[in-house]
Specification:
- There is one protein chain.
- This protein starts with 17 loop residues before the first helix and ends with a helix.
- It is built from nine helices and no strands.
- The radius of gyration is 22 Å and the shape is elongated.
- With 248 residues, it is an all-alpha fold.
Length: 248
Amino acid sequence: MPGPSRGQPARFPSTAWSLVARAGHGGESQREALGQLLARYLPALHAHLVYRRGFRPETADDFVQEFIAGKIVEKDLIARADQELGKFRTFLLTALDRFVSNQIRDQRAKKRSPGEGMLVSMGDREDAVCEEGRPSDVFDVAWARGVITQALDQVRRECETTDRSDLWGVFECRVVGPTLEGAPQPGYRELVDRFGFRSPTQASNALTTAKRMYARALRSVVAEYAGDSRQIESELEDLRKILARAGK
């Protein structure tokens, strides 16, 4: 096992709106960027349709796939995102709600004209609506958890590539496991034996380093779809409030 005396891991880059910009413009990197963006938001969009708007999961799947094909890909929706007009996640959710509302109106029109198409099964809350421009709590929580997961993945990968598995190990044992899984929090003396630290103080210092890495990673993830530093801070504050409401 590599010793804890290695150099500090590299800082994560800040890439304000870079992912959104690449996903919204042509070029070789567009497909990859769009895939990353959708992977980040699809769980939140699906959760919003199921738990806030009341659709069955399979219906929500259909709506999300149609939204991706008809609006994001065919109509190049991401290219119209403007960081000057507000948060990207609000822009995306508003577009989804408008799309679904239009789909429902079209379905109802077809229902009044038999033979013009198959109706989508809406579930018990067919007339449910969500106030446009305001992400629902379930969407916010799903988004926040996705951001946390992405930041943790960045930290883990950085520790692996810099040969500092001890940093990830102490962070996982002292923070990730107890916070996300309710695992017992081991003492520093146990971490000395497990990861080869010279002393509990060195283990504690390693945890401080890992926490700083996580803070940078979290900021990096948020910076990909926030705007300037003020908007990044606003998103981070939203993240803290969302997780506090969710009890996480």
